[in-house]
Write a structure and sequence with these properties.
The protein is α/β, with parallel strands linked by helices. Helices cover 71% and strands 11% of the residues. It has 13 helices and 13 strands. The N terminus is likely disordered.
């Protein structure tokens, strides 16, 4: 009994000694060189909130008790102690939720994030405090992926919200990005063949592969360069960025290395070191040595303990196998639920797109139908005007035809009148000639009368009869001369009138001829206009037919759009059902994980 008590005291001393070997986490009196303005700012903001990735071991995670642990946790805790403020680490269900909260200013800072172009729009970043390479993960039976170009056309899993999404979408749009809510789900999708590859960092990949016992996934390639992660501070707090940057500058390389060594080693084949497991291993080694010394002399107790130990190991192995099987099942179900949720989101997005497109198309078709109705009404009006114009043109043409007939009759009458005037003129000429002959006859009669008078004078009384005849002849000659002069005047007046009538008839005939020509020209033009109107009328008939066909086609399109919209609503409803099923699966998975964690705690 005394020996056992001595051994217990020795064990306690050894445990205390080993614990004392662990490096101190408290601040060691290092002063951060802050300005007065920075100190005043810290005094006004004693508590600052940070949004870590909840599932990113060994850098950031929340343990079973809800405490924030990991490389970033230790480093930022050291920074907070040196600044004399409190950093509050807000737990969110996913990195996407952290990003949304930071953008909404519900959280002040990213604890560890890549300074992407998108994040620089609303955040300021300190100097990097975590540097890590990027890797391509693939199944063991997959082709050799040695660079990102080999993944063009492939499905690649990336945790939603990680900086890889922005970089790949920008630099390699040929890669089909498949978002995943967390690393475990992404590895499960890769393991079960839902995706061709995955992009991540070595440390977290190795941690999850070991934790989930996934053996068909390998490191395919290390990407060139390194990824720098820093603290992100809201853009309206530049002093806080300067403060944290100065505090990070006080952390020495040895301190950083010590923190990293407590949590990570080299992934994929190299030994990992972790401070808690190193401490527990040291304690277990001491306990085994002491127990071995105590039990060295007691074979029966040793045999009993050995039997119990074998039984316990068998039970532990069995439970460990159960835990791994449950973990694999959880990953498989999580992958299926994630795919189901993604399919539901895609269907919902597609349905929304269909609904929007159908609504826009229906609006456009309604507008087109209204335009077609207005166009059809305008065509009807134009057609009516064209028909009315055609009737009036036809009436005008008929009037012109009648006018042309009248003008032609007038021209014929004018021509006949001209001919009669010419005949009269010729008769007047004949009368004139006759008058001339009468003048000559009068002259001869006068000469005869004179000669008769002379002969009568010669005859004396015997010539008295001749004298009387001569006097009568002279009187008749005088009367004939007067009549001849009157006839000559009348003939001259008639000639003047005839000549004037001829001139007027000729002018009238020319005007009538011009009127006939103009009437013919106008008739020809009206005929051409009527032909054009007839051709235009036929075209309007064709347009009216086409517009009517288009209107009927628009109605058909509208009916089809209504069918598409109904289908989109049905797809949307099915997507909602899929989303509900996916959510139920996620809740079941969470319950399963909680049960496994409780079982693990009970075993511990």
């Amino acid at each position: 009994m005394g020996n056992a008590r001595s051994l217990l005291w020795l064990l306690l001393i050894l445990v205390v000694g080993v614990c004392c070997l662990a490096p101190a986490w408290a601040a060691d009196g290092v002063e951060v060189p802050l300005t007065e303005a920075e100190r005043a700012w810290l005094a006004e903001h004693p508590t600052i909130t940070f949004g870590p990735d909840p599932n990113w071991p060994p850098y950031e995670q929340f343990d079973a008790s809800g405490a924030f642990v990991g490389i970033s946790a230790e480093l930022l805790t050291l920074v907070a102690k040196r600044l004399g403020v409190t950093f509050e680490f807000v737990r969110k269900p996913s990195w996407d939720a952290v990003v949304a909260a930071v953008k909404a200013r519900e959280i002040d800072c990213y604890s560890t994030a890549v300074a992407t172009q998108d994040r620089k729009e609303y955040m300021l970043f300190t100097r990097p405090h975590v540097t890590m390479p990027g890797i391509i993960l693939a199944r063991t039976d997959a082709p050799a992926y040695t660079r990102l170009e080999d993944l063009h056309g492939k499905k690649v899993a990336i945790v939603s919200g990680y900086w890889w999404e922005e970089a790949i979408a920008r630099d390699h749009p040929e890669i089909q990005i498949v978002p995943s809510p967390d690393i475990a789900t992404a590895l499960g999708m890769l393991s079960f063949g839902s995706v061709d590859a995955m992009l991540n960092d070595p440390a977290t990949s190795a941690w999850y592969l070991q934790e989930l016992d996934i053996r068909n996934v390998r490191l395919a390639a290390r990407l060139p360069g390194a990824t720098n992660l820093a603290v992100g501070v809201r853009k309206d707090w530049p002093l806080l960025r300067s403060i944290i940057d100065k505090a990070l500058g006080t952390v020495s390389a040895d301190e950083r290395q010590a923190i990293e060594n407590r949590w990570t080693g080299s992934a994929f084949g190299e030994q990992e070191t972790s401070f808690p497991w190193l401490l527990v291993g040291s304690i277990l080694a001491v306990v085994l040595v002491l127990v071995g010394g105590v039990l060295f002399g007691n074979r029966m107790l040793k045999a009993k303990i050995a039997a119990q130990t074998d039984q316990l190991r068998a039970e532990l192995a069995r439970r460990e196998e159960v835990y791994r099987a449950v973990a694999r099942t959880t990953v498989e179900v999580t992958g299926a639920a994630t795919q189901l949720g993604a399919s539901a989101r895609e269907q919902a997005a597609t349905a929304g797109t269909f609904h929007t497109s159908a609504t826009q198309a229906a609006t456009a078709v309604t507008s087109i139908a209204a335009t077609l109705d207005a166009l059809l009404e305008a065509v009807e009006e134009i057609h009516a005007v064209a028909e009315h114009t055609t009737r009036r043109a036809e009436a005008g043409r008929q009037q012109l035809d009648r006018l042309d007939g009248v003008m032609r009759v007038m021209a014929a009458a004018n021509q006949g009148m001209g001919e009669r005037v010419v005949a009269i003129q010729k008769s007047a000429e004949k009368i004139k000639l006759a008058t001339v002959m009468m003048v000559k006859v009068v002259d001869q009669t006068n000469l005869l009368s004179v000669n008769s008078a002379i002969e009568a004078e010669k005859a004396g009384d015997h010539g008295r009869g001749f004298r009387i005849v001569s006097q009568e002849i002279q009187r008749l000659a005088d009367q004939s001369a007067g009549a001849t002069l009157q006839i000559e005047g009348i003939v001259r007046s008639m000639q003047d009138g005839v000549e004037e009538g001829v001139r007027e008839a000729r002018a009238a005939r020319e005007q009538v001829a011009d009127g006939v020509d103009q009437a013919e020209h106008i008739g020809t033009e009206l005929g051409g206009i009527m032909e054009e109107i007839a051709r235009l009328t036929r075209r309007f008939e064709q347009i009216r037919g086409l517009v009517a066909d288009q209107s009927r086609g628009t109605e058909t399109i509208r009916a089809s759009i209504e069918d598409v919209e109904s289908g989109a609503q049905a797809v949307n409803a099915s997507s909602a059902e899929l989303a509900d099923v996916s959510q139920s699966l996620q809740q079941a998975i969470q319950s399963l994980r909680a049960g496994v964690s409780e079982l693990s705690e009970d075993d511990a």
